[in-house]
Design goal:
Number of domains: 3
Strand content: 15-25%
CATH topology of the largest domain: Spore Coat Polysaccharide Biosynthesis Protein SpsA, Chain A
Oligomer: single chain
């Protein structure tokens, strides 16, 4: 057996299917086996694999044992002379396996091999080649100097950005998303360190490969799509903790002395900073609307105070105590906000009547306790009544504006999706119909034929003229069908187009896989659901706030 492919899966059923499809479309002249190690997924990943890919060897864990341990489970029973660790959110080219095996077999000094990776937007992923973490690299990345001076050997150490991505290089670290390894080297240095639950295991393994006298190589003559972290949500505190703790494990294990202490300090600093930012973001999101409501109420009461004292002038004496702004207003606003919360105004299903009920309820609460206020805190009851009416008016008004700006009106103002579909005519027709149904702003320009010589008004041309078609029709979205298109064509097209175009890949099971940015994980859409279900106005407003 030449090659054993190990795929660790966790709740990415559709991505996994597409990965397996691309693997078995490989054009190779050797025998290989495929393992899927499932870490107790809650979706139907295992059912899908067993039904559609019976040739795959499945290891079904009853708990999430982590990336390292899951890979080791398969590697221990594998029969291949080479081991490929492959992420379940990748798509490989038809020639990737053969080219990589040919290259590593010729270069006996190579212990690990990685390839050129693109995300779902066609952008090169810099983690395709990396340097070992050290204080200098960590500081350059944390400070942003690596982005400012990517070609600098001093500041570009983290992603080795000074190395040409279109040339082969000996590098320090390979990505665990695609990591081809000699089994004989693993037998010598040991398997993945299971102290790493997720992240860092590829750095550790790469380090041990080089310590054993072998090279890690970045191989640029083939490429893959990596939808970049679909299994893990990178904005979460759990991600931050897991990632940086993995870096600390590596630092403590391999970097000693002053350099190790400095790196450990920088990593811990990064943990705290990222954690603080994440907590602030989590706090700000649910409290954004109540804070805005409170500010509006404070403004209303302050304006009313001025109006009452200078215009109404019920009597010559001052009707507002000196403490009105510092005591009365905070009390009134706090009661109103509590009442709004009590009546469910800040729930996703909130209705207008709940806002009115919340304000009136708050007014009644203030009225009940008004008699208990000391004389110096008592003000005109009319201010409270008028304040409630103003609150209802302004809170309703800004919610309506938010609804208009981020709801219905935005559907008409936003840029129309001009879509080109590269597929067979029958399949292209189905895709076009579903897209138009699901999104009124979607309009397909036409189809691009996979074969030449097709005469139809619906076709703009053939794939060999794809760049001329894009220049002529200016689409902002392209859909690739994987039924007959090669992965190589898809990746080449995505990577060569410089215009801001969204790419989506239509799989055999009528699902669409996409990733719209370099730092965004892939998205899954299915034709049996609304592909672009609009958010409620409240959701939009909360996101805006």
């Amino acid at each position: 057996m030449k090659l054993s492919i190990v795929i660790v899966n966790y709740n990415v059923r559709y991505f996994l299917e597409q990965t397996l499809v691309s693997v078995f479309k490989s054009e190779v002249h050797f025998e290989f086996e495929v393992f899927v190690v499932d870490n107790n997924s809650a979706d139907d990943s295992l059912k899908m694999v067993r039904q559609k890919f019976p040739q795959v060897k499945v290891i079904a864990n009853t708990e999430n044992v982590g990336f390292s341990k899951a890979n080791n489970q398969a590697i221990k029973i594998s029969k291949g002379a080479y081991i490929l660790m492959l992420n379940p959110d990748t798509i490989i080219q038809e020639d990737t396996l053969q080219k990589c095996i040919d290259f590593i077999e010729v270069n006996k000094n190579i212990g690990g091999l990685g390839v050129k990776m693109y995300d779902g937007a066609g952008d090169f992923l810099p983690e395709s080649k990396r340097g070992f973490p050290n204080p200098s690299a960590a500081f350059s990345k944390m400070s942003g100097l690596s982005k400012l001076f990517p070609k600098s050997k001093v500041f570009g150490q983290y992603h080795l950005s000074y190395l040409d991505k279109d040339k082969n290089h000996s590098v320090d670290v390979l990505s665990g998303a695609f990591m081809l390894l000699r089994k004989s080297v693993l037998d010598k240095i040991g398997l993945l360190d299971e102290a790493y639950f997720m992240y860092g295991e590829d750095i550790d393994l790469s380090y041990r490969i080089k310590q054993a006298g072998f090279e890690n190589y970045y191989y640029s003559d083939t490429s893959i799509i990596h939808f970049k972290g679909e299994s893990t949500k990178k904005g979460s505190l759990n991600y931050i903790k897991t990632f940086y703790n993995a870096m600390l494990i590596f630092s403590d294990k391999h970097i000693k002395g002053t350099r190790g202490k400095m790196l450990s300090f920088l990593l811990q600093l990064a943990i705290y900073l990222r954690a603080v930012l994440a907590v602030l973001q989590k706090i700000a999101t649910p409290f954004g609307m109540p804070i805005l409501d409170g500010l509006i109420m404070v403004f209303n009461l302050y304006v009313l105070q001025l109006f009452w004292e200078n215009v109404v002038k019920i009597s010559d004496h001052v009707i507002f105590p000196a403490t009105f702004f510092y005591i009365n207003i905070p009390i009134y606003v706090a009661v109103w906000l509590f009442s709004l919360w009590f009546f469910g105004v800040y729930s996703k299903q909130a209705k207008w009547k709940q806002l009115i009920a919340g304000q009136l309820g708050g007014m009644l609460l203030i009225a009940v306790f008004y008699a208990f206020f000391p004389n110096y805190l008592r003000t005109s009851r009319g201010v409270i009544v008028v304040g409630v009416l103003l609150n209802i008016l302004l809170l309703s008004l800004y919610r309506s504006i938010g609804h208009i700006a981020y709801g219905t009106l935005s559907d008409y103002l936003k840029e129309e999706k001009k879509i080109i579909i590269i597929a067979q005519e029958k399949e292209a027709e189905i895709i076009a119909q579903q897209l138009v149904k699901s999104n009124k702003n979607s309009r397909y320009i036409g189809f691009v034929s996979i074969k030449n010589g097709i005469k139809s008004k619906k076709y703009l041309g053939a794939t060999e003229n794809i760049f001329d078609i894009i220049e002529a029709y200016h689409p902002n979205e392209i859909l690739f069908s994987t039924e007959e298109l090669s992965t190589q064509f898809i990746i080449d097209t995505m990577s060569k187009i410089e215009q801001p175009i969204t790419f989506r890949i239509v799989t055999k099971n009528n699902t669409i896989i996409s990733s719209t940015s370099k730092n965004t994980s892939g998205e899954i859409y299915s034709f049996d659901i609304n592909l672009s279900a609009p958010k409620t106005w409240l959701d939009r407003l909360r996101n805006w706030i």
